[in-house]
Amino acid sequence: MPDLASALAHIRSAWISGRSALEYCPPEWRGAVGGADAECALAALAGHATQALFRPAPTSPLVVRSLLPRLAAPTLPERLRPQARRLLLRASKTGALFERPLIELIAARGYAMHPADWTPSPRDDWAPDIYAPWLDWIRGEEKPSPPSLTLETYDQWSFAMRCAALIQLRASDPAVARVIIAAKASAAPAERRAKLIDILETGLCEEDREFLEGQTNDRSDRVQAMARAYLARLGRRVENEPLAAELAAMVEVRLLSRRRQLAVPELKIAAQNARRLELFKQVGLADLAHALGLAEEDIFESAPTGAPDGLGAFVHMVAATGRDRACRLLLDHILDDEAFPLQRAEPLGARLSIAERRALLPRILKRDDEMFQMGLALMGRALGEAPLSALIASPGYAALVSAVEAYRSEDPTQRFPAQATLETALLRVGLLADGPAAAELIQRLTAAGLFASDPKLDLLHLNAALTPETRS
Amino acid sequence: MGLTLSAIEAVAPDQGALQAASGLLKAAKWPLRARSASLIWGECQGSGANPYRVVADVEDQGTKCTCPSRKFPCKHALALMWMAVEDGAAFQTSDVPDWVNDWIRRRRKGAASAPLSAEGKSLEAAQQSLAEIAPDPEGEARRIAASQKRAEETRRSVRAATEDLDVWIADQLRTGLAGFLGAIGERCRRIAARLVDAKAGALASRIDEMPSRLLALPAEERIDAAIAELGKLALLTRAWRAAANDAEMRREVVTAESRDDVFANTESPRVVSLWEVLGERVATRRDGLVSQATWLMSLKETPQRFAALLDFFPASAGRRGAAFIAGERFNAELAFYPACAPLRAVIAARGEAIDGPGTWPEPAADPFAAYADSLLATPWRLEAPLLLPRGRICADASGRAWWRSDGGLCAPLREPPPALALGATIESAMGLWDGARLSLVAARTNWGRLSFNA
Fold it and tell me: Which of B101, B166, B394, B402 to mutate to test the interface with A (most CBs of A within 10 A)?
């Protein structure tokens, strides 16, 4: 074989430079290589020998990854995988932003995607905690996790698994979680520091204040901003009275039926409105209340009123810097006030606990006249829980039925817009509905004229099939 | 409007379409007929290797077919509806498959065009006229004589072309492969054009694709690959001259025989087995055609037997949906194109689909030894399917992916694998090996079946 390899190397060199290679022909081949097309015959034998006897060999050692870990949750049943794949494909083709809620809905029902259908990308920090082992694997950081997370075992954990454990620990023992984060966060890169401090949002309390104060001088702007926002939620004032006073002068507190109401009126000049929007970003709720001479809760005796963009900026400020109770009060009033544009309340969704979202769901849906968009925005990860009664009481449902009718219309000017509307609305309602509601909606919509096998109903079908019974 | 024979007459574009449809009213032409609610669908074996997919809504006679016909509805759709009226029991109730779903998504219920008049169209007349076609022995003899004359002219022309090609190969070696690779596009295009003129169309297509095959490799591997390609061409021209009438040689050099020719050829191997669809490879060629190869593997034979259902269609027709679902298993009789190592096939008869897990044949410990053996039978073949034993997908220092068996055999992959492949145990895999790169098509892993899309 070495002789043949050597001969082939000489033949190759000769042909690269355009010389005859016949003199390098191995003796065993000479009988077959001759005549006018001897070079062709030699090429046939040399090519054949190269392909049959030699294979490319790696020039460096081959590295084998560890096996993709199994997750705690079962993967989707085989019969549901094609639907899930179709939905993900549609999300990627249309650029629709529902890959994330779809993954969250499936996780909320206790299932994980099959890794041949979906795995998180390294930057998918949002992926539900059940995917933490896969996130670590995708990032090449997988390690066997110790049985418990303590200061001593902290470094033995991979990052995503550690975050998942810290989130659990924060829910069960906030002080221990804080001690671990306080001791270890400073050694992490900025992006991961921010992720660790973000965990403190759950169960944020006075005891966190000291650690957060220290983080306001962090070298990362993002961490600083996060720490300041959390401190503001604990009632810390920035002591920037001139700005707070300037903002206070741009809003009004009125008395309405013996209740205070904050008014954010349209200002005369666009530059003034822009300045007010800027101030809402810089001033915290506690500072504004102080400048208005009120306690924080006094501001929330009723829903605020005024210019939509001003109201939106105010809600953003409350969501970023208000205490939990302030956020709940504000959302409560907004849901009761038909005149308040519900879409401006979206930032408050992130401040609600799962239990609060569930409790508010029927009221949110009843106010949602944007085809379930606000319901979806405010429900966060509490997906797949809306009962039929709440869904059909929503203005979104009536709009959905109208969209089905328009979709069946002969008039293309009605039909084509209705198709897009219908696709979006069915995806949203498919994410919100609980299993029985999804099954009933399929019945109603097919009775209204959609094919039962219409792919627009895929998510409702998947939702309806993802009941706990499926697991048995 | 429900589905009736008169409704079918009304929606037919003309009497000719009905007549053509009447020729398709044979169960043998329909490996699949199914229904769900108002939908009926089926697969009709047309002239290609992959069947046409036809769906119709019996409520409004809306139809869709994957055939290239410009008539709407086409003969396949008319035949499907016709059979649904006359033999509805032959349609099995089934779940709506993805390709039917895709069609539904694009249409709305009741969107079919308004029914046309049935005037001048008759199903009865269509069936009668088909039966009345009388044989014409003299015409047939003339056609055969003309065909033989054309074949002889083609043989002469192709012989000259293969001799030209040998000179061209020697020229490339004599003037240096470095220069050949530097101007490979232009040089291959010129000789390919000459081969097309000489009616060696298959050989021309192969040479036309050579630049893209060689330039896809790293520079250091191109010389060896060029020698192999030129050597295979030299072998092919010699083999053709030695047996110009051989069906395989004609297919490799001139053009492939038709599906009907394969069925009519008594030398076509027929294999009845349980087949699993491994996957599909779709490639757009320089001549504007898209090749669609569906790879099947027999689950009843050891050593393994593969089959490729190969179709070509114009790229301008847009991408076709997959003809089969990867992992699907069905009983079928396949007719192989006659060859030293038969691979290309068409479905002669398709039986029922099989649910439940199937077992792949046991792979050889060294699949590359089997590859070397297969090269002895068909040394001009560019790639061969391999069934690979248990192993893993690994990466070298540059990040290139390799398949490596538990026994230490390894081969570089042509395409980057999906993330899961790197973290899965590959129990067994099927790939196409061309001597330099392995294109994985499907694998059985500890996570179940894995498809490698290309």
Answer: B101
